[in-house]
Amino acid sequence: xxxxPTDASETAPLAMRGVALISGLMFGAGLLMSxxxxxxxxxxxxxxxxxxxxxxxxxxxxxxxxxSLAAMTARRQIRPCWADxxxxxxxxxxxxxxxxxxxxxxxxxxLAGYCPGPALVSIGAGSVDAxxxxxxxxxxxxxxxxxxxxxxxxxxx
Amino acid sequence: xxxPQFTPIPSLLGGLLIGxxxxxxxxxxxRIAGVSGVMGSTIDDPRSVDGGxxxxxxxxxxxxxxAGLAVSPEAVGDSHASTxxxxxxxxxxxxxxxxxxxxxxxxxxxxxxxGSARSWLATCVxxxxxxxxxxxxxxxxxxxx
Lengths: 157, 145
What we know:
heterodimer, A: 2 domains, 66% helix, B: 145 residues, 6 helices
């Protein structure tokens, strides 16, 4: 999937960094506004038999509504504005890795109310809880890096 | 413990912003705004030519939190979990999102919105195990911390 060096890609990285910075800032602002950087709201959504807080569903509906339009638009375009090509996820098969990994993620999510995005935003806001979570998340990813490819079936890409 | 407050309007507006941010990264840069994927790829392949934009995206997320402190400090809350539970939670989220190839952003928003069957299944699974975990913590163990 790698493109050879072209004249366009000489200037592309800077534009791509600008896009990434604005996207990251905007993504974080959305998480802050939506209440998703308050773990009790996430736990409140997952606590369907308790005092249920449906806010998270509104976050997802809003985000999915906008992004589905973007995805439709992207499919009709040859290339993105400031990069060479669209990088769509290439894995299509449903397997035990997908289900098992998502199941483990859900357990971790429910234990503390953090997922990766809100954790990074909260670290920026100086949350000690988020820092403990984020450091451990990094460690979990390193453990995956060291062991993940040995778990069957091996990741093909 | 205060009752969680239902916030439909800010949550919907925040969701629109999140969708807009992910749309910008897709239409502008051709990339999927999955936070665990971006972070994991940075760790797996730090010397990649994509390292630059990936680290910049993550930096943007962190900086938004810093900016949020100035605008609305109450927007960031603490978890009620103890430090050992935060560590366990982080390990599970870090390992699980890499094994399952995505989290709430990559699968839950970007994947579902483009109609990926994998992402719909992943989202159902993590919602289910997240819900069962909260049920166990709150209603079986009576508020485990």
